Amino acid sequence: MSRRFAPIAATVLAATVLSMPAAEAAPSIVGGEKGSLADHPYAVYLVDSHGTQFCGGVIVSRTAVATAAHCTIDVPPDETSVVAGREDKRSNDGVVLAVTDVWRHPDYRKPQQGSDLAVLTVRGQLPYRPAALARDASRYPAGTKATVLGWGRIADGGDRSDYLRQATVPLTDDATCRTGYPEYNPASMLCAGYPSGGTDACKGDSGGPLVTGATLVGIVSYGDGCGRPGKPGVYTRVTSFADDIAAHSGLG
Question: Alpha-carbon distance 92 to 102, whole Å?
Answer without folding.
Answer: 25
